[in-house]
Amino acid sequence: MDWLRSSARGGLWVAALAAALLPAVPVTGRAQEAGATAAAAERVPTPLWYGEMEAADRQFRFVVEALPGPDGTPGHQLRSIDEGDRRFPLSDVVDDGERLSFILAPTAAAYSGTVADGTATGTWRQRGAELALVFRRVGEGPVPPTPDEVWTGTLNAVVQKLVLQFRVTNGAGGRRRVRMDSITQEVGGFRADLSIDGQRHSIKVPAVRGEFSGELSADGTTLTGTWKQAGASLPLVLTKGAAATVPPAKRRPQTPRPPFPYTAAPVTFPNETDGIDLAGTLTLPSGAGPFPALVLVSGSGPQDRDETLFDHKPFAVLADHLTRAGFAVLRYDDRGVGASAGDGESATTADLARDALAAARFLAADPRIDAARIGLVGHSEGAAIVTLVACERRETACLVLLAGAGVDGEQVLLSQGALVLRAEGLADPERLARQRTMQTILMEAVKTSPPNADAAPVIAIVAKRLKAALGADSLDGQDIDQLAASGVIRLSSRWFRHFLVHDPAADLARVGCPVLALFGEKDVQVDPALNRPPVEQALAKAALADSAVETLPGLNHLFQTCTTGAVSEYDTIEETLAPAVLDRVTAWLTDRLDPPSPAPSQGATP
User: What is the SS3 string spanning 405-433?
Assistant: First the structure.
């Protein structure tokens, strides 16, 4: 339940922290990018084409680069500047002076354009969408072009410090084009509208519903003001200077590196009920099989197959550990992420359970897999998802629930609202009371309104109640109106409506297979003190004698060894998954699924 992952979904929704940037899903996606970047680390790319693509309120800057393969054969990659400078492998490249075209197979995207006078004019196609994209041959000058002005500042969003950058390019007739980048989050290109009144500068960013307003200093080098978003206001100082750079790669020593003693392959499987195809990676131990198998199911928000967050790849680490122990493991991109189709933003927990069920059925049909020994592993919301699957697929061999909630979403959010602030050192009684009041009013209004109700009257009711409860000294009227609008729109989504009332313990009581439920002692998102008792009661009701519920000391929601459990620690901790978690999960699964001892062999990167 990781609020950092999504603008429309996410278990950790805390109104006082809502000013953190929550950007849109990337156009290209991140699935399987590591295969390109890791393999290319020692080879120097040559930029060939540079292009800019407008996608609603966001611009993407691309560079097509020549990159010889490890054996010296010709190759190409696409550098996506506004997605953290990530590189993606290209196939079927045509660059013959008359036509430029290529395919990004991992993300189901393709480009085709006609070349004339050093310019390729064409169309980017991805998942049924078409966008105009013009490339120009790279010649003299920097790639990408240098903006005329750059303003940079650090926003303290409580749970994370975000470096923001505003790029200004002066056009004909004095017109300015402004783009905002969130350097820390490695996303950028958001259209920004700049207005200047004397020394007062205002910058609105429609895509993230944010606005900066600041006063220019006498020497013209700083803008001191406030960033407003979702009804919250945070101080922000912008300084004029050089463009910020992509942060250096974070140290993540547990991320698996080749060579591997197992094989891995990209796979695609259908969710026939919903008519979508999902893509993932299947890792198989060496040997003949059939193997016991596991499906890994991620938490809240659109996530790739590795459950990537802050460059941590917990599912890659877990899949590697389990496959080395003799299990086949399937992990997949969520709906609408990477190479998977579908709309992930509106999907409820029940919708996503059909995707996980499709993954289990896909494994059961594979002759290399023992259909009677298929287990499911879910993290956070993924725990609720795999529980629903086990209720439907009675032949499920076992479940592992990692930081799974035992109460409905409303109780989870109220708990998070207090625990997150306490972990960040912001636990004064007034702040905590204000936080709970805002959450309670918003959730009650959404729960009592019809699913298809007009948002405007609900927003008006919420704003009125917030103003009465918080008082004039807490937030000004405009901020409360914005908070009400943002909160109602967010909580009115299909996912949130389902999440607020869904009781995962009731589902757990209907499960018929062994369950291992693990909690982190310092988890501030799924508090073990609140969630463990109902999980234990549900398992007792189901009479699952071979099950276990454990709280692991010193671990946070991501099962990292931590100091406080604060969300702000996730990024600074180098450990991705505590070894104790990997060992406990593997040992418990081994006792129940009895994997063969894998023989050493060399395989492909997952």
Answer: CCCCHHHHHHHHHHHHHHHCCCCCHHHHH
Helix then strand then coil, % of the chain, to nearest 5: 30, 30, 40
Angle, CA of 274, 280 and 286, to the nearest 5° = 135
One-letter amino acid at 498 equals H
Q: Would you say residue 179 lies in a domain?
A: yes
Is the same domain home to 508 and 442?
no
Q: Which helix (H) or strand (E) holds 60?
A: strand 58-66
Alpha helices of 64-114 — where are they, by DSSP H? none
Q: How many CB atoms lie within 10 A of CB 178?
A: 19
Please name which of 153, 156, 154, 160 lies closest in space to residue 12, comparing C-alpha atoms: 160
Q: Are residues 508 and 544 in the same domain?
A: yes
Give the model's pLDDT for residue 23.
36
**Which pTM does this prediction carry?**
0.82
Give me the sheet containing 262-271, strands edge to edge.
Answer: 262-271, 276-285, 328-332, 291-297, 369-379, 398-402, 515-520, 548-552
The predicted-structure confidence for 337-374, as pLDDT tens digits, reads as follows: 888 999 888 899 999 999 999 999 999 999 999 999 99
pLDDT, averaged across the chain: 88
Residue pair 525/414 in contact (Cβ under 8 Å)? The answer is no
Residue 331: both structure tokens together: 């992990």
Write out the H or E segment, with its range, that includes residue 437.
helix 429-447
The burial of 139, by beta-carbon neighbours within 10 Å (0-12 exposed, 13-18 middle, 19 or more buried), is given as exposed
Are both 357 and 256 inside the same structural domain?
yes
Residues 378 and 520 in one domain: yes
For residue 14, the 8-state DSSP code is -
CB of 351 closer than 8 Å to CB of 334: no
Identify the sign of the CA torsion 263, 264, 265, 269.
positive
